[in-house]
């Protein structure tokens, strides 16, 4: 233990603890607290960052600090019992165990070779290889590649110049837009023919995908920034935004027509603008769409404005009048369309009701037809039977004779068939019974096998659980072995091990000597007892022989019996004394073991700490009373 204490003291000095004592026995609670705190700061500084360097003077603070340290050590994997009193009133054996455990948790020292940290170099190599694996492949002619220097002016990527690519859409747009699916199937060119050159296919597709992604990203950003706070769902928000965009487009188109005087060029520009928008929305095939109605509206405005351009004032008045007329016309059209829609919806509802009525009538008629068909089939069967009976009534006696002969023939046939059936039935029944017995035996065997299989499964589960526990224990021990410090002084440990082996050999020699002595003593005791018993029997026989002739021999027999009785009592007392001595030795060893645990537990110190706690409690009670009086 002195060598273990020496290793612990060397470790504590390396950790920066100022130790004046030469053994752990002289450590007090203050020194134990400082040493354990030094260990924990090296192992995990974050857990003890709030603890002070010395034990607090307040008793409650001391208990809290020692409890926190004890919990940290337990969480680190310390298996023995540990509480705050083991640190406030330290015991040599417990403190030695704690120091040895914390020494095993200390991190490894960095091994330097040639001024280069091997671990850091390995980490850098791993990071470089991971970066090379995760890096995306870049062509050699790409200007962003740093692998091959050179002139990359001939490696420009071109996209299609004939407009954006048209890729068929899917989902709701195919159902909403009539004829769009037919257009995609019959008229839309393949993707490879929409570009001017074959080399432009990939860049054009990249640009198309990037534009879709950018548009979706913009929509998501706008919804996150503005749409979520509007209180609407995404569909309603898109519809409201679409209405706002359309209204702004109407205003801009109308303003451009007014500013340009409704010229033909402006009209053509507006038409092309509306065509582009229609293509973007996928509604270019819709002849009566919203943009076509807007175009007709702008054409009317331009015609009216061409006729009314005389002066600036008159132009503004005619524009205002045409706008009012346009609103009135639009309102009347909307009302008329709404009335038509209402009429059509009413007619659809009436048609639906009539159709449901017709369906119910049709189902009812089908059920009636089925019942009538069943009745008809039953009547047809009855008719056939009655027809046959009526045909037999013409020649009743002849028919009766024929029926009698048929009955006799059928009865004879039945008897023959029954006899033949008995011949066939007996082997079948015997075979059936044998098979049934065999099946019962197989069922019993299968049942026993199933029971055995269940037992084997239970045993397998138990073995699997044991194997898993052993694997977990092995993994835990392997992790502990990996975490254990490998840079400790091997010479000290080897010297300790050799000395321990020498001590064990010496103890073994001493134990062998003691065992040999006990064997020799046992042999001597056995020989002495045998000689004593023999001499006792011999003396007893001699005395009995002499007692017949001599009176003194009778007195000798009585005294010999008394001596024998006392000798037996003396043997019992000696055996009890030996048992008592053995019990005393065991109790002394237990007392020594307990005293080793409690030798440092100073009763005077515990009493003093108790008095300090009581005084602190009294002061706290006084403070509480004063605060309550002040509040009242």
UniProtKB/TrEMBL annotation:
This is Coiled-coil domain-containing protein 22 homolog. It comes from the Eukaryota. InterPro entries: CCDC22, CCDC22_CC, CCDC22_N. Residues 1-107 form the CCDC22 N-terminal domain. Belongs to the CCDC22 family. PANTHER family: COILED-COIL DOMAIN-CONTAINING PROTEIN 22, JM1 PROTEIN. Residues 124-597 form the CCDC22 coiled-coil domain. Residues 334-480 form a coiled coil. It comes from Dictyostelium firmibasis. One of its GO terms (molecular function) is cullin family protein binding. Keywords: Coiled coil.
């Amino acid at each position: 233990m002195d060598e273990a204490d020496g290793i612990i003291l060397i470790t504590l000095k390396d950790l920066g603890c100022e130790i004046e004592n030469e053994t752990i026995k002289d450590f007090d609670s203050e020194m134990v607290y400082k040493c354990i705190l030094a260990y924990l700061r090296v192992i995990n500084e974050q857990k003890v960052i709030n603890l002070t360097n010395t034990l607090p003077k307040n008793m409650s603070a001391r208990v809290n600090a020692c409890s926190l340290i004890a919990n940290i050590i337990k969480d680190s994997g310390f298996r023995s019992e540990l509480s705050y009193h083991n640190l406030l009133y330290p015991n040599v054996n417990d403190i030695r165990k704690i120091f040895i455990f914390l020494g095993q948790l200390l991190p490894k020292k960095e091994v330097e070779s040639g001024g280069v940290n091997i671990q850091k170099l390995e980490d850098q190599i791993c990071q470089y290889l991971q970066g090379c694996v995760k890096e995306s492949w870049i062509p050699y002619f790409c200007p962003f590649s740093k692998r091959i220097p050179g002139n990359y002016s001939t490696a420009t990527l071109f996209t299609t110049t004939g407009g954006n690519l048209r890729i068929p859409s899917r989902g709701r747009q195919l159902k909403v837009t009539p004829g769009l699916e037919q257009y995609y199937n019959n008229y839309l060119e393949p993707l490879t023919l929409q570009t001017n050159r074959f080399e432009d296919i990939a860049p054009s597709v990249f640009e198309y995908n990037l534009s879709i992604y950018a548009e979706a990203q913009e929509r998501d950003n706008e919804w996150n920034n503005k749409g979520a706070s509007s209180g609407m769902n995404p569909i309603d928000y898109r519809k409201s935004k679409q209405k706002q965009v359309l209204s702004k487009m109407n205003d801009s188109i109308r303003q451009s027509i007014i500013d340009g005087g409704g010229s033909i060029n402006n009209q053509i520009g507006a038409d092309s603008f509306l065509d582009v928008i229609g293509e973007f929305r996928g509604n270019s095939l819709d002849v009566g769409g919203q943009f076509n109605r807007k175009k007709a509206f702008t054409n009317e405005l331009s015609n009216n404005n061409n006729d009314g351009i005389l002066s600036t004032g008159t132009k503004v008045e005619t524009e205002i009048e045409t706008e009012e007329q346009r609103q009135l016309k639009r309102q009347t059209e909307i009302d008329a369309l709404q009335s038509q829609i209402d009429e059509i919806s009413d007619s659809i509802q009436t048609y639906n009701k009539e159709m449901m009525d017709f369906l119910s009538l049709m189902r009812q008629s089908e059920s009636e037809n089925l019942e009538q068909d069943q009745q008809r089939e039953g009547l047809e069967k009855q008719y056939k039977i009655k027809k046959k009976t009526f045909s037999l009534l013409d020649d009743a006696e002849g028919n009766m004779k024929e029926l009698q002969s048929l009955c006799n023939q059928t009865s004879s046939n039945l008897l023959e068939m029954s006899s033949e059936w008995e011949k066939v039935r007996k082997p079948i029944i015997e075979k059936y019974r044998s098979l049934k017995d065999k099946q019962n035996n197989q069922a019993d065997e299968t049942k026993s096998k199933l029971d055995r299989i269940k037992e084997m499964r239970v045993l397998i589960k138990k073995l699997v659980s044991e194997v898993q526990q052993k694997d977990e224990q092995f993994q835990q021990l392997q992790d502990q072995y990996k975490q254990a410090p490998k840079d400790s002084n091997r010479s000290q440990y080897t010297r300790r091990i050799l000395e321990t082996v020498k001590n064990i050999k010496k103890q073994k020699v001493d134990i062998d000597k003691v065992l040999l002595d006990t064997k020799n003593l046992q042999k001597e005791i056995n020989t002495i007892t045998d000689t004593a018993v023999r001499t006792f029997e011999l003396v007893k026989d001699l005395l009995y022989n002499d007692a017949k002739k001599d009176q003194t021999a009778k007195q000798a027999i009585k005294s010999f019996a008394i001596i024998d009785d006392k000798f037996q009592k003396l043997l019992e007392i000696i055996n009890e004394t030996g048992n008592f001595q053995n019990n005393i030795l065991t109790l002394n060893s237990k007392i020594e073991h307990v005293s080793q645990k409690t030798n440092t537990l100073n009763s005077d110190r515990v009493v003093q700490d108790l008095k300090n706690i009581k005084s602190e409690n009294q002061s706290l009670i006084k403070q509480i009373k004063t605060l309550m009086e002040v509040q009242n």
